[in-house]
Amino acid sequence: MIDAIILRERQGNKNTELSNPCIVDHNPGPNEAILNSGLTLTLLRHAKSDWANANLDDHDRPLNARGRRSAPLIGKYIEDKEIPIDVVLASTATRAQQTLELVVSSWNRGAPELFSTSNLYLASPRKIIDEIQKLPMHWRSVLVVGHNPGMGELASILAGEEFDFPTACLASFEISVENWQQFPADYAGQGKLVQFCCPRELE
């Protein structure tokens, strides 16, 4: 189990506990592993949503106060760690859109290309990959903003180990293919986890 408190890096048959729950650098250098990689896939689950209005359709539920606090924290983490993002794919759900707005508002970098699609609403891992595979090859790094269980399942499949993936948590992977169209149909264990963070560890 990988969670926000302890992340284990597998080294053969030995598990090494990492003391900082929000940083996973498998190679030397602060961000070289991310910045020099071929492709970077970053998964971000939407922040905590509001269930107060029972009459709202699930798609239209907004963030609650906790979600509005946590989204900028994870946005600042993305900025501080210089996680590259050329393009963002986001679910059209209100809670995903509000999460994205708060994350981007915390950046000093230029805004990436932003695309929203209903295909990412409650999408399965396979549907998420289908959307990523539509990207042109000149975009080398993508941020996907979506929902569980699909996001957590995809992170677990890519890493080859189960993830606890709470709201507003982020996982960034190096993907060893030349373009998104080459993302293998059998993508289990195909990602190298380079960053993992949840905002509760940043408060």
Provide key terms for this protein.
Rossmann fold, two-stranded antiparallel ribbon, 6-stranded mixed β-sheet, single chain, disordered N terminus, 8 strands, 203 residues, alpha/beta
Question: What is this structure, in a nutshell?
Answer:
It contains five helices and eight strands; from the N terminus they run E-E-H-E-H-E-H-E-H-E-H-E-E. With 203 residues, the protein is of the alpha/beta class. It has a six-stranded mixed sheet with strand order 5-4-6-3-7-8, sandwiched between helices. A two-stranded antiparallel ribbon has the order 1-2.
The CATH superfamily name is Phosphoglycerate mutase-like
Largest sheet: 6 strands, mixed
Order of strands across the biggest sheet?
5-4-6-3-7-8
CATH topology: Rossmann fold
Principal-axis shape? globular
Strand content: 15-25%
Summed up, the domain count is 1
Got a strand count?
8
Spans where pLDDT lies below 50 across 5 or more residues: 1-20, 26-37
Succession of helices and strands: EEHEHEHEHEHEE
Distance between the termini: 23 Å
- Assembly level: single chain
Output the structural class.
alpha/beta
Tell me the Rg in angstroms.
16 Å
CATH 2nd-level architecture: 3-Layer(aba) Sandwich
CATH secondary-structure class:
Alpha Beta
Describe the structure.
The structure is a single chain. The protein has five helices and eight strands. Helix 2 (65-80) crosses helix 3 (94-105). The protein has helices at residues 32-35, 65-80, 94-105, 125-132, 150-159; strands spanning 7-11, 14-18, 39-45, 87-91, 113-117, 141-146, 170-175, 191-197. It has a single domain, classed as Phosphoglycerate mutase-like (Rossmann fold, 3-Layer(aba) Sandwich). A six-stranded mixed β-sheet has the order 5-4-6-3-7-8, sandwiched between helices. The chain is an alpha/beta fold and 203 residues long. Residues 1-20 and 26-37 have low confidence and may be disordered.
